[in-house]
Structures are given as C-alpha cells and as structure tokens.
Specification:
Chain B: Keywords: Membrane, Transmembrane, Transmembrane helix. The complex is a heterodimer of chains A (71) and B (154). Chain A has 71 residues and is mainly α. Chain A is built from five helices and two strands, in the order βαααααβ. A two-stranded antiparallel ribbon of chain A has the order 1-2. With 154 residues, chain B is mostly helical. The chains are: A mainly alpha (71), B mainly alpha (154).
Chain lengths: 71, 154
C-alpha cells in the first residue's frame, strides 16, 4: 500500500509556500516537503487538517494505491 | 541544520576534551597510590596541557549559552533533544533516533568490555585506557543519534 497525495498541486493552486502551508496546519516546512515527496505519511489528524485548509475531502487530497509486493 | 552541526561538533569535542582532561587526574591518583604504598616519598608529576581543550570548549559553551539565553535558545547538549520535536514528523524521527542510539549500546558495550581485556597490556603506556574505553559508549551514542536526527532537516 502506498499513500499518494496532491498536496503539491493544491498548494501551488493556492499560491502558498511550503512554510505557509506548514504554518496553517502547525508543522514545519520540512514536514510539508516530506509529505509532498511521499517520504512521510502524515497522521490522520494532520491529513484532515491539510484537507481542511484546502477545503476538500480526504479522497480528493490523498489516494491510497495498492502496490504489487516485490519478491 | 547549522545549529545541529555546531551541537554535534561541540558534543563530540566535549567528550574527547573531557577524556583528555582526566589524564592529569589519573597522574595525580597514581602519585597518591604510590604515596600510600610507600609513605616516605611523595612525588607527583602532572602535565596540565590536556585540560586546556576542555577549558577552551567550556568558554565557547559559556559564551554560546549566554547569547542563547537572551534569544531563548537552549544550550548545545539540550538542543537536539528538545528543539527537533516541533511536529509529529520530528517527534517520530526523534523517537527513532533515540531507539537506534539505545540499540547501539547492545553492540558498543560488549565491544568496550572486550577492549578492557587489553588493559593489563597497555596499563603502563596508556594509564587512561579505561577512561577512553568508557567514553567510547557516549561517543558512539551521540554519533548514532545525530546521524539519525539529521533527517529532520533533509
């Protein structure tokens, strides 16, 4: 399972910097960068907060992808 | 990141300097030990040069602490333990770094215990050998912790 997200696109649409979005949801710029790159999976609370600032539903921001197990 | 690098350099330097500063203490203790063995003569030769790095580092820390206190910034040894927990990701990385540093003891403590086997051989040439071996443990822990915690800034 892999969690993909549209945070980068949505942030660009709102013309916010990573730091500005981070300040709105109460996290650092590095955390937003990690979420955008897919390096960090946010908690449910942070995920909902991000959806809330974009005024979108969870499904519109985060997509759960099924990946084939390697090996 | 700059603050983390400064904190890492200061932490490692402090441990190395502290180990060096204990050399004169061991020399004094050896002098007393020989005095106890033969009370008629008391002779201690102490080289205080190994204490100098610790004094210099302490002065740097005192200045940094004074300047940091005005800005509400903690001292360098508190910095990586307190500051990088601003949000859930940083707390997760801190927790992972702490666990890894703790796990490092499992490897480094037996290694240090094994190194102590060499003590009877090097006792004459390196009197502070047990001190150095003991200080390897925090040194490794600090290196492991900082290596893991730097992910916060990547």
């Amino acid at each position: 399972m892999h969690l993909r997200n549209h945070v980068k696109e949505l942030r660009a649409r709102h013309d916010w910097t990573q730091a500005q979005l981070g300040a709105r949801v109460g996290v650092t710029r590095q955390t937003i960068a990690s979420i955008e790159k897919g390096d960090y999976v946010p908690s449910l609370l942070l995920g909902l907060q991000i959806c809330n600032v974009f005024d979108l539903t969870m499904e519109e921001v985060f997509i759960l992808e099924k990946r084939e197990e390697q090996g | 990141m700059k603050r983390l690098i400064f904190s890492f350099i200061m932490s490692v330097s402090m441990i190395v300097a502290f180990g060096a500063a204990l050399i004169p203490c061991i020399q004094i203790a050896e002098g007393f030990a020989s005095f106890i063995r033969s009370p008629h003569q008391f002779y201690v030769e102490v080289n205080l040069l190994p204490v100098v790095p610790l004094v210099i580092l302490s002065l740097i820390e005192a200045v940094d602490y004074y300047l940091g206190r005005r800005k509400g910034r903690p001292s360098f040894w508190q910095y990586p333990l307190i500051i990088p927990a601003a949000d859930e990701r940083e707390r997760a990385i801190s927790a992972q770094a702490t666990a890894t540093a703790f796990r490092a003891i499992w490897f480094i403590a037996p290694f240090c215990a094994a190194l102590m086997v060499l003590h009877p051989i090097v006792r004459q040439s390196i009197p502070a050998f047990p001190v150095f071996v003991l200080l390897i443990i925090p040194l490794v822990q600090i290196c492991v912790y900082y290596f893991k915690i730097r992910k916060i800034y990547l």
